Amino acid sequence: MTDRIDGQVLKDLISSATPLIKALVDTFVTPKLVAFRDRHNLEKSKQAITEDNFTEYYHRMFKKLVVVNTLVFNNSQRLLLDIFIPLTLTLKNDDTSTFKINEFPVELSDEYGNILITDTAGMGKSTLMKRIFIDAIYKNVGIPLFIELRRLNKNKTIVNEIRDQLNSLNKEFDPLLILELLSEGGFTVILDGYDEISLSDRDIVTKDIQDFISRASNNRFFITSRPENALSSFGGFQEFKIAPLSRKEAFELLRKYDNQGQLSSLLIKRIQSDEIRNIDEFLTNPLLVSLLFTAFEHKQVIPFKKFIFYRQVYDANFESHDLTKGDSFSHDKHSGLDIDDFHRVLRHIGFNCFKIQRIEFSKDEILSIISQSKSFCIGLSFQESKFLLDLTTTVPLFSVDGNYYRWSHKSLQEYFAAQFIYLDSKGKQNDILKKLYNHPNLDKFINVLDLYYDMDYKTFRNNIELELTNEFIRFQNSHYLKFGKSYNSNSINKRRELTFLVDCYIFKSISMSRGARFDVDKFQQMIDNYKEETGFESGRVAGIIIEPRVAGCYFGFQYQNSKNSLLGLLYSKKNELVKQIDVNIDKSAPIALDCDLVEEYKLKEITDDPEDKLNSKDQFDTVNLFLEITRNLSITINANNVDAINEGIKRNIGDEDMSDFFLEWGSVI
């Protein structure tokens, strides 16, 4: 087992931060507050924000963020800097713009302004934000604020959350003063975990965040999230993704977990051996690298499915083997449940939390969820409070943060939710999967479907893939049917692939030189007008300048159905239902679009109307190329395979329905 934090080391580290915090407050906070109080005729009273508020806040946040509760090591605390490796950010739709982040990214922020970082589960978004916050203190580069967006809801605004963070036990001040202070600039505001906002509160919270950013626009902003359509609300942000880890980086991370010890060396040697194949997917994701280490530490076996990773991590946490005490040592459980019964209860808890899309709860809320799960698990007897004690101590899959109880990692909740659908929903799997497929926020559930795919591919195929292929066939049978034989059938198929599940638009800006950005205000007004006309809720902007040497710079705009996230999932599974757009497309090459067909800052929809001049024979393939380059997701459905896959699924379902296999009882040979 790897080393834990030595108490004295942690104490010394926090002590060493004291002069750094003082320097930050003296350099940036004090001059700002003195000038602010003078302008508003405020005394250093309980109504005024003081230097003490910030000093206490930074000591508290430094202590909280400089250590991480690691799911993979029984939720024990580790120093963030001991297990952090630099991550590379890549500008969306421009793989050549990359930034390796090992400190506060001054250059990145100065060049691109407000930064949106989106990526899938476990890519290290929150860890990266913690590193940036800590480095802001170390390097004295401004006034950082760290906001966990899951704390916001319809009753708690972002300003109130900042007030609560800055308040000490014996000081209170007017929250309106916070907004006035932040509006003057000089702050770095980190908004972590947009995807963790409850679905029921998301619209209200999003509006609150937008208003806050608008009124405090003179600051640096960072937002992190898993990919979601609703992120289009932050059109003034430049979107970046986290580049997959290289093998070298993955091995470096593994070595950090046991301080260059024998276990990581053995694991790396096993990975490099010829007998271990198809593991590259797990080496590109920091969380999966961590799970790989824990799984190997527990059983010295390398699992090849994500859900097996999570099961072995659960087993390791439940059994809590301390190698220094021998394999027979295991902590007793307060609940009295064995490993399988405890897993059974957690499956229901995971699914319950997944349904309401929350990972953090008050004590009363989580006890209520445990009670509901207990009633579902007929035959099990335990006390809810003792089960919760297990969750934070002997089976530490939850962490305690002040008055909040939360899952150690959102993906852990999703693992148990997927297990519930597979093992406990009995004959309801089909209904649940179809409900997920048709949910307007399917992209929020994609990690559960990713895990379920490997647990029960047949049921996934019979529902998710069948629904997807049916939908494409309906789309195929109703779009681009009025085009004459003079149009190439491959071009028609490509257009269907590119516009399936996506409403595509083109607009142009005023004439600008190459590399210039579009006018954000005019763009936002254009989108606001579109919302009013169509009831549109969310979309994604590609932001690609296509041809600045003609009358204007062309941009692609897409309203993307959340089902698009399935295409990426299927591609990661090497499923023949999808394919990748030709990666050799030159995104910088001019495209010969007729500049008179599109108006400035007015969305022009790309439709299947044969009378539309964008669909003329001389423009059709050019528009296809435009759609390929400006597409947010470089994966499309593979039209050539849809019919065969659809027919195969239906045939297999029919064969199963007609089979008497389960009722045939003969003699055993």
How would you describe the overall organization of this protein?
With 669 residues, the chain is α+β, with helices and mostly antiparallel strands. Among the domains are: 7-242, P-loop containing nucleotide triphosphate hydrolases (Rossmann fold, 3-Layer(aba) Sandwich), CATH 3.40.50; 247-319, no CATH class; 489-642, no CATH class. It has 25 helices and 18 strands. Strands 4-3-9-5-8-7-6 form a 7-stranded mixed sheet, sandwiched between helices. A hairpin with a 5-residue loop joins strand 1 and strand 2 (76-79). The longest helix is centred in the N-terminal third of the chain and has 33 residues, at 7-39.
Summarize the structure.
The protein has 669 residues and is of the alpha+beta class. Among the domains are: 7-242, Rossmann fold (3-Layer(aba) Sandwich); 247-319, no CATH class; 489-642, no CATH class. β11 (398-401) and β12 form a beta hairpin.
How large is the radius of gyration?
A: 27 Å
CATH C-level label of the domain at 7-242: Alpha Beta
* Mean model confidence by pLDDT: 85
Which fold name corresponds to the CATH topology of the domain at 7-242? Answer: Rossmann fold
Number of helices: 25
Structural class: alpha+beta
* Assembly annotation: single chain
Q: Overall 3D geometry? A: globular
Strand content: 5-15%
Largest sheet: 7 strands, mixed
Per CATH, the architecture of the domain at 7-242 is 3-Layer(aba) Sandwich
List the strand order in the largest sheet. 4-3-9-5-8-7-6
CATH homologous superfamily caption of the domain at 7-242: P-loop containing nucleotide triphosphate hydrolases
Q: How many E strands?
A: 18
Helical amount among residues, as a percent range? 40-55%
Separation of the first and last Cα atoms: 48 Å
Low-pLDDT parts are 321-329, 512-516, 538-552
